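re: ur question from yesterday

yeah so i grabbed the chain u mentioned. its 566 aa long if i counted rite. heres the sequnce exactly as i have it in my notes:
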Amino acid sequence: MQQILECVPNISEGRDQSIIDAVASVVHGVDGVKLLDVDAGAATNRTVITFAGEPSAVIEAAFLLVKKASELIDMSKQTGAHPRMGATDVCPLVPVAGMTLEDVVPYAHALGERIGRELGIPGYFYESAAKEAKRKNLANCRSGEYEGLAAKFQDSAWQPDFGDVSGDAWVKTGATAVSARNFLVAYNINLNTTSTRWANAIAFDIRERGRVKREGGSLTGKIVKDAQGNPVNVPGELPCVKGIGWFIEEYGVAQISYNLTDISVTSMHVAFEATCQSAERRGLRVTGSELIGLVPLQAMLDAGKHFLAKQKRSSGVSDAEIIKIAIKSMGLDELGPFDPAKRIIEYQLADAGETNLVSMSLTDFANETASESPAPGGGSIAAYAGAMGASLATMVANLSAHKRGWSDQWEVFSKDAEQGMAIQKQLLSQVDKDTAAFNRIMESFGLPKGTDEEKASRLNAIQSATKHAIEVPLDVMQTAMQIFALASNMVERGNPNSVTDAAVAALCARTAVEGAWLNVRVNCADCKDAAFVADMTSRGEVLLASAHAQSDAIVAKCHEVIGNTQ
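ran it thru and got these structure tokens back, copy pasting raw so excuse formatting
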């Protein structure tokens, strides 16, 4: 999976649009990063900027943003309602896809250290990037705010984690806090009531902090306090959830506004289901929900799969279908349209101008293949044949999961279908990879070859591209081989009305393996690394023989089943 990192720096300027635009615009200059949102607040004099992309590119953009903010914002003259201590006040890094929170911590440390080293700006690491327990909480790091920095820097217990405070350069820039944290989702749930009191009661049921404990367990009893005189709380149902009820004049209904501070612990659909149950206990009903900002793709897929499972339906379907189920099940479109292309981070990051083979219609793809261009060629078609084989086997699994009288087996067939969709996705990605591998060879042949150095460099590039063009179809062979086990299962125990579809899936897989093998062989002829060629050839021959044997057995079994049903 592609690694995607999000960065959400908060700068201490929310009124001067020219400064806001200048700071945010540096993100546009970094390849591999997309600016997702700029949310300015005049009253707080603070702007939240959101961008995401490939991790190293995000770190570069974050550094440049901190640099630009330090040049344009003078903290000695800044005022605002929101707590702050620096021109770039906080700079959280958030894993979105293909990486864990633990993966992000080194990036946070590298960013902070570079900010300190190259810009001289002091700062602290907080949350998961904190290097000591007391600095984990941002409020501790920011206590005293900008005005308290001078005293703080004199305190041996609060020396910065990075940056230089020996001079007075920090007076203009203030300090910056850098963190690694999990994705936070702002998520509101709508109720069929106008009562803020009831909305708050449900929020107190659900949120981690819960509600104040009262004597006798009543709602009006005396508040229970601890030995230090602080109110004691009765924890709510769900961890990593903050929540409060309110009335939304625009919609004329009460809402529960949640911050899901770690969706790997408490997801949207878990919060939704718990809220539905709490509302029902009070004679209320949840009518829908509202997502504020953007959400990772996986969060929507997890929600859709949860609701499909409740329906005893297979989740081995397209991402678009799973997302549709999530939207409808949680009523995310109740208050307005919910467009996945605009609300899901990974879809926002997709280059709308990018063209690829798998995004074409069947007719366009066929016509592109038939054109005088040598690519797409046999390798891409082999991968696509494999994708169609995986799709057919998946179809049989889904039909079996939904077959009348087979309800006790839906979960087994759903897992089969999920496996098939994973194979299909991988083979579809390989359709374009094969064409890209061919184009890389052509590009290497076009390199300069005047000097001896250029000739050597060109030869190395050609050989490297040739090896890559061997590895790609071998990967296609290995991926397509996974279809046989699924197709065999569907012939043996799937919906008998679709046994021929499962056999055709095996034949498509065989075509994919044999077609990719031809590409391996033809490219091996141009590779000068004899050991590499021998290894690739040996592996390919084993896969080919197995593909022949498995497809023959599946087709024979299909004929047997057909014969028994006639």
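noticed a couple things. The domain at 185-349 is CATH 3.30.70.670 (Alpha-Beta Plaits). also The chain has three domains: 4-180, 185-349, 357-565.
anyway ttyl
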